[in-house]
Design goal:
This protein folds into 2 domains: 122 residues, no CATH class; 203 residues, hpI Integrase, Chain A, CATH 1.10.443.10. It is an all-alpha fold and 342 residues long. It contains 15 helices and 2 strands. The longest helix is centred in the C-terminal third of the chain and has 22 residues. A two-stranded antiparallel ribbon has the order 1-2. About 10% of the residues have low confidence. It starts with 9 loop residues before the first helix and ends with a helix.
């Protein structure tokens, strides 16, 4: 579950390390729990705690799934890096993850002993490789139209009402692909969507401030062509498998669909169709590029659609109403493109 990332509390600090060993929890709480620090500023801002702690949690999940000890070790790191490669992560992204693990280690362990020099050395080696690697965003770009075609063909080919998980999963993945292409939120917000955030007619999704990197609420208008598919998922399909939670996206067994499951699902769906794995972040790029191509004199609109914080990239759209207008415009543009494509 996504946590508030621009402020913190004792409850949030403890939630973020809840699945760790008692020793690790104690060290993390000592470093970041405001009730323990008693007014002293922690060494990391809340967003840094969230990001680095999240990487360590995923590292422990990989160790658990791989059957290796849930501790910082070369074997565990190797399994973790392999898992990120399997998700299609670039060397640049992997380097960031390894550096996050090193930063967490400086909080949880006494690194002055030299016991974890191997981790620092690995972070430096991977970082050096990342610097030699050209960013692959342009090479991995896929436009909105084929993404939507794949999404809708996947949903049409499924029979989710049969109750078979494979059919439900297929419809879910197609719907997520379409939804993320036209409602380009960051993955942490997409992962956290609750049914209570969605309008009764599936026309809009309101995402609260605490789930936004920009510390501003976001309202995403769902294009008309996608509303029936979203309503079908909420009303007819999701209840077949949903567990005792209010999250929109569900995994096998009804549990919430987490970060890794979303990445893996998009990789599995898009890799065979496009020859590359299209991540949720690339879906944001697709929506923004579509707008820039269609409205060449309003490139700043793309920044507003993506909720970027840089004032230079969203100067013309600083008010909330402008964000809603941008959302309506991109929805209308994509709907028109889809209708023209047949």
């Amino acid at each position: 579950m996504v946590s508030i990332i621009r402020r913190t509390s004792s409850e949030l600090v403890r939630q973020r390390c809840a699945g760790w060993s008692e020793k690790d929890q104690a060290a993390w709480i000592k470093a970041f729990d405001p009730e323990v620090l008693l007014g002293v500023e922690p060494c990391w801002a809340p967003v840094t705690q969230y990001q680095n702690g999240g990487v360590y949690t995923r590292y422990l999940d990989v160790c658990r799934d791989s059957g290796v000890a849930e501790d910082l070790s070369p074997d565990g790191l190797q399994r973790f890096i392999q898992s990120t490669e399997n998700l299609g992560c670039s060397v640049i992204t992997i380097s960031g993850y390894v550096w996050s693990l090193w930063k967490v280690t400086t909080i949880l362990r006494d690194v002055s002993t030299g016991e974890f020099d191997w981790l620092l050395a690995t972070a430096k080696r991977v970082g050096a490789a990342a610097k030699r690697t050209r960013k692959r965003k342009a090479d991995r770009y896929v436009s909105v139209e084929p993404l939507l075609e794949l999404a809708f063909s996947t949903m049409r080919a499924s029979a989710p009402e049969s109750g078979r998980w494979a059919e439900i999963q297929s419809y879910r993945d197609g719907l997520f692909l379409a939804f993320a292409s036209v409602c380009p939120e960051r993955l942490r917000a997409l992962e956290a969507i609750r049914l209570s955030w969605i309008a009764d007619d599936s026309s809009a999704v309101k995402i609260p401030t605490e789930f936004q990197k920009t510390a501003e609420p976001s309202t995403r208008l769902v294009p008309g062509f996608l509303r029936p598919a979203l309503a079908r998922w909420i009303t007819d399909i999701r209840p077949i498998v949903a567990g005792d939670h209010d999250l929109l996206w569900v995994a096998k067994g009804g549990r919430p669909m987490g970060f890794g499951a979303i990445q893996a699902a998009m990789r599995k769906l898009t890799q065979p169709a496009f020859g590359i794995a299209v991540t949720p972040h690339r879906l944001r790029d697709a929506a923004a590029t579509f707008v820039v191509e269609e409205i060449t004199n309003q490139a700043g609109l793309a920044s507003r659609i993506l909720n970027h914080r840089d004032p230079n990239s969203m100067r013309a759209y600083t008010e909330t109403a402008a964000g809603l207008t941008a959302s309506r415009r991109v929805g209308a543009l994509i709907e028109t493109a889809r209708l023209e494509a047949g």
